[in-house]
Structures are given as structure tokens and as C-alpha cells.
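can u do me a favor
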């Protein structure tokens, strides 16, 4: 029991020494405050939050989320093929891919994928 307490005490002392050395060695300054602040789409975090917001950033974020969810839904298609009939699998995966392509074409024609306005 004494050995366990001595070991725990020594570990605590070593951790405190390491933390003190890191604090002394670290090169923090007032200029690093801007680097450690959260980045929100190019807005100044100190200014008013009621400034105008570009709709383009919002659309890009929504498109990213949609494609991200689509990838999560597409990945298990190969595993599902193993456990279902080929015709069922082909029809369901084809329908899913067609819906995705129609959505992509709609976004393309609405010019949501254009980076330059």
C-alpha cells in the first residue's frame, strides 16, 4: 500500500514538473490570441454578430452535408448485395444513384456549384 502511495506521489510530481517546463518553454504572447480564437467564415470574432452573411457559404455547407450523408449511404451497398437478390439490389441502388444524380443536376442548373459570383 505504501509503495502504491509513493508511486502515485512520484507520478504527480513528475507530471507537475513536466507541466511547469511546458509552460515556461511555450512561446505564448498576446499576438497568439487571434490564432486561438474560433474561425467563423472569415468574420472578425470581435465585431458585431449582426453583419451580413454570404448565402454562398451556407449553400456550400449544405451541399457538403448532403454529399457526406450520400457517401455514408452508398458505402454499405456492396455489403447489401451479398445478402439480397441481384435484381432487388440493382433496382434499389440504381434508384438511389438516379436520385443523387438528379439532385446534382438540379444544383448544377441552379448554379449552386459555382465558386465565383
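np, heres the sequence
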Amino acid at each position: 500500500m505504501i509503495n502504491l502511495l509513493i508511486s502515485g506521489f512520484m507520478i504527480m510530481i513528475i507530471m507537475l514538473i513536466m507541466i511547469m517546463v511546458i509552460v515556461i518553454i511555450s512561446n505564448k504572447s498576446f499576438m497568439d490570441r487571434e490564432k486561438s480564437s474560433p474561425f467563423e467564415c472569415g468574420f472578425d470574432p470581435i465585431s458585431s454578430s449582426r453583419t451580413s452573411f454570404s448565402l454562398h457559404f451556407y449553400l456550400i455547407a449544405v451541399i457538403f452535408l448532403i454529399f457526406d450523408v450520400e457517401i455514408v449511404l452508398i458505402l454499405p451497398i456492396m455489403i447489401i448485395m451479398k445478402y439480397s437478390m441481384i435484381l432487388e439490389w440493382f433496382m434499389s441502388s440504381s434508384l438511389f444513384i438516379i436520385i443523387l444524380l438528379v439532385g446534382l443536376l438540379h444544383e448544377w442548373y441552379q448554379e449552386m456549384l459555382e465558386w465565383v459570383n
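The two ends are 71 Å apart (CA to CA). hope that helps!!
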